[in-house]
Amino acid sequence: MLAALGSCDEQGNSVSADASVQRDADATTGPLPCDQAPIETDVPTIQVGLDAYRRWDRWPYLHIGERAYTRSTYDRAGGNEAADGSHYLRVTNDRAVALDVAGTGVLYFTRANHWHGSPWHDVVDGRDFTVAETASADPTAALPDSSFIPAQAFPSPLALTWSTTQGSDVSGVPIAFTQSLQIEYERTHYGTGYFSYHLFPSCSRDLSAPVQSWDEEAPDPAVLALVAQAGQDIAPPSSAPGVKSLEGSVTLTPREASTVFDLTGPSTLRALTFTAPSADAESLGGATLQITWDGRPSPSVSAPVSLFFGAGSMLNRTGREYLVRAFPVSIRFSASVVTLATYFPMPFQRSVHVALVGGATPATVTWTARTQAYSDSPAWAGYLHASYVDQGTPRPGSDLVMLDTTSTEGGGDWCGQIVGTSFIFSDRANLGTLEGDPRFFFDDSQTPQVQGTGTEEWGGGGDYWEGGQQTTLPFFGHPVGAPGPGSATSPEDAIESAYRFLLADAMPFGRNARIQLEHGGTDDSTEHYRTLVYWYGLPGACLVPTDTLHVSDEADEESHQYLSPGAHGIDTLSTRYEWGVDSIAAADGGTSIVYPATSDTGRHTTGTSELTLAIRPDNLGVLLRRKLDYGYPDQRAEVYVADPESNPLAFVHAGTWYVAGSNQCVFSDPPGELDPLQPVAQTSDRRWRDDEFLVPRALTQGRRALRVRLVPTQGTWSEYRYTAYVWTLPPPP
What we know:
Blueprint: H1 17-26, E1 29-31, H2 51-54, E2 67-72, E3 87-88, E4 90-92, E5 95-102, E6 104-113, E7 120-124, E8 127-133, E9 148-149, E10 159-160, H3 162-165, E11 168-171, E12 175-177, E13 180-185, E14 193-200, H4 221-228, E15 243-252, E16 257-264, E17 267-277, H5 281-285, E18 288-293, E19 301-304, H6 305-308, E20 322-325, E21 329-334, E22 337-342, E23 346-348, E24 351-357, E25 363-373, E26 383-392, E27 400-404, E28 414-426, E29 438-442, E30 450-451, H7 455-458, H8 463-468, E31 471-472, E32 476-480, E33 496-501, E34 507-509, E35 513-517, E36 529-539, E37 543-550, H9 554-559, E38 571-575, E39 583-585, E40 591-593, E41 598-605, E42 609-614, E43 622-629, E44 635-642, E45 652-659, E46 664-667, E47 680-683, E48 688-695, E49 705-714, E50 717-719, E51 721-727
């Protein structure tokens, strides 16, 4: 808690709240000129837009100050209505608004079920761009060779339609915005979608390039060529400067660990392959890969070999050359051998120990590896982790926890980013469990920053990959599994798995990450899941909480100099966050509460609020989190900050804090492709929400505290709790 700094005029006389607010208003200035912000060379450069593909070697580098979010058309009540489709923020001008964001950022990924909803509209900084699919002209007829319109802006392989992905229209074309972004649907029949975007603080100077508003430009052909090389050797060759090659062989003994190699650093492992006779494919796939970095107490990679390389089994039911042909991993059958390869950049500082633990039967494996010198700060790049969990029998009503960094490798704080998942979702060829939604929570937030619409949507498909079709693409796929129980030729053929890799859309966290997956549409599946999360991370936090204000607690308000002259009296609210189902059927025929409502007190206002929060002078920027009542729609405020130790205060504009929508959404799912919108208002019992705002380090560094002014410009501003976090580099490993 921050000690009170006093509320006095320049002569030391006490002033009223109204006078204090007016005094500070007189001192408010415009935004900081971005070209005056210092260039930030003491933190890793964040690769922005297409640079994230071009510089994929920077995949392990930390994203200090960047935040990632996924919003979608999910059922706001926590169920699976319309397969989590057709739930919108609002309907405006005969369009359904699915996403509405303010700030500076990049939309990195969009997904729709087939062409449904097309024509879509990407409204970028107020400019309306129509994005369609060639099936839009006659959506009642499927076009197997469909493509995006405009074609030059959405080329393959960054943008793919449903006949390639088996069910989804997806785009990984980065769409940058400097002020705002909306995504709108003209049609809402089967209107599912999810949208992954990143936000940056205003005037951030640690980006690889300035964020410039998208203008339908064609992506760099070199990026398209790079992504098209998925499944091939994309790592630096042995002839490149600083690259060293190694090779050898190892005989796997059942249930025993065999060392593959040990190396010293600092270095980056750029390529790792294992090759075995095709007859030993199952034995190799059933082994466990273990990688230990810098002598840590336990391996950071500890996972079944087949799942690490993208497949739940090694059964190649159709005899494909590539069982997995993804960007960072592959499984390739050729002649009489099978080769598994990974090209994840894997930096380490002192040492790496690679081992294989044998599976059920012996196998002889040859291996190759390439390393490249690492010369950047040890605190800049994270270790690769592959965290595996055998989920056993799922618990009704509770999401599967695929990763909880607070208990990983001894627990504690971690700074890093999520870069992928590989998981088995059935061993009985049951595709119905794919209705489960991904929900990801970062850095103490009680609202998921990532909320998806289903498991196969997360894996790049749609309609259960068109009824169980196998597919393998650079960043997502369903490589193994029969279309259904009746077509499974063996127990191994009934194993269903999927993968999803995140490169440009990697999801950073600064303190902790909790990655959850709903099993079935209402957490009701009994399938045997085995899950793997790929992530980069260093032990220690790069986002540290420094202060919290509980609005409505008079002592807390006084110590934080909270002023809100127009605020109403104290609000008391009992409600829920947007998690899974609230209740499930009980054994006695009644219901059992899964997520009970919780109560808190706060305030709401249409006028200005001010508060002071303690921070650290050595900060690299500040993240503000607010707990709010989402029952008030479209809360928007301009944010100004000042140094409370300066005299007089000089507020500088830091950006717009906007929370689109409310606990009331619009559901529209007409029966026909060309039927007009049929909007129906729906209200959920989930009014708690945590939301975030990024303050650039140019406005925070060197300060012990931050005076924050919030000036609502739309709707009612709700405030229950504010928390300040500061960005910093984690301690070197």
